[in-house]
């Protein structure tokens, strides 16, 4: 493997560990339970990162999967996995605020994208671009920072789920935070929490219908309901779905 591939491997492996800590497992369970059956479907994943969800969507039966991300490193890592274990996924480096229409997709996903919009106008552009890639009757699902999170929980007790979120600046149209992924090796990245109504409002202004906050789903595992109770009440994430009308 070339040296640059090694570098992407390190980034990618560190990143994907966050999908298997408890909060990552609950994120997966909540998102996947909100999606329709993917068998035979065309799926676009925007802000695909390492390609974790695009690979999962193929494994769940999707016929055509396209991933896009604005980061050279993330796209390079996703492509390096595709080169190693081909699933027929294509990746493009594109900024979601400038995303063109790549096709008519039955399902469009954007996991941890919308919080990164630079301002409310960019949020509306991103939402419009996600909507523009949906086939009539298609479904959009987004994972965003939970607008209703309990801020007594996220910086502290939420650590039992492998993750802590600490406010790093003032709330303007969004609130800057540092997300700390605990465990070995620990790492942190910047994110932004937006107030209630920001994300669902943008999806509605993009012309989508049935904008719905999906119920949080926690894994049914041997850690039991008591372990998961705090996350179920105040997850760090929220999943919204919306639909492009069939006759638009
Ligand atoms: C927290 S990661 C999540 C990656 C992936 N969705 C996942 O859940 O594994 C956020 C991703 O959003 C991408 N991103 C941030 N701003 C973006 C933009 N304007 N357009 C496209 N991708 C963006 C980053 O490069 C990064 O890969």
Task: Provide mean pLDDT, rounded.
Answer: 94
**What's the total number of strands?**
10
What is Rg? 17 Å
Q: Which CATH-level-2 architecture?
A: 3-Layer(aba) Sandwich
Identify the strand order in the major beta sheet.
Answer: 3-2-1-4-5-10-9
CATH superfamily: Vaccinia Virus protein VP39
In percent terms, what proportion of residues is strand?
25-35%
Low-confidence stretches: 1-5
Order of helices and strands: HHEHEHEEHEEEEHEHE
CATH topology: Rossmann fold
Number of alpha- plus pi-helical segments: 7
Number of domains: 1
Question: Would you mind describing this structure in some detail?
Answer:
There is one protein chain. The protein has helices spanning 3-17, 22-34, 52-59, 72-84, 120-132, 198-205, 224-233; strands at 42-46, 64-69, 90-93, 105-111, 134-145, 163-167, 175-181, 187-193, 209-213, 237-243. It has 248 residues and is α/β, with parallel strands linked by helices. It has one domain: Vaccinia Virus protein VP39 (Rossmann fold). The strands form two sheets. The protein has a seven-stranded mixed β-sheet with strand order 3-2-1-4-5-10-9, with helices on both faces. A three-stranded antiparallel β-sheet has the order 6-7-8, with no helix packed on it. Helix 3 links the parallel strand 1 (42-46) and strand 2. The model is unreliable at 1-5 (pLDDT under 50). The structure holds S-adenosylmethionine (SAM). Residues 47-50, 52, 69-71, 74, 95-97, 111-113, 116 line the site of S-adenosylmethionine.
Task: Considering the chains and any ligands shown, give keywords for the structure.
7 helices, 248 residues, seven-stranded mixed sheet, 26% strand, Rossmann fold, alpha/beta, binds S-adenosylmethionine
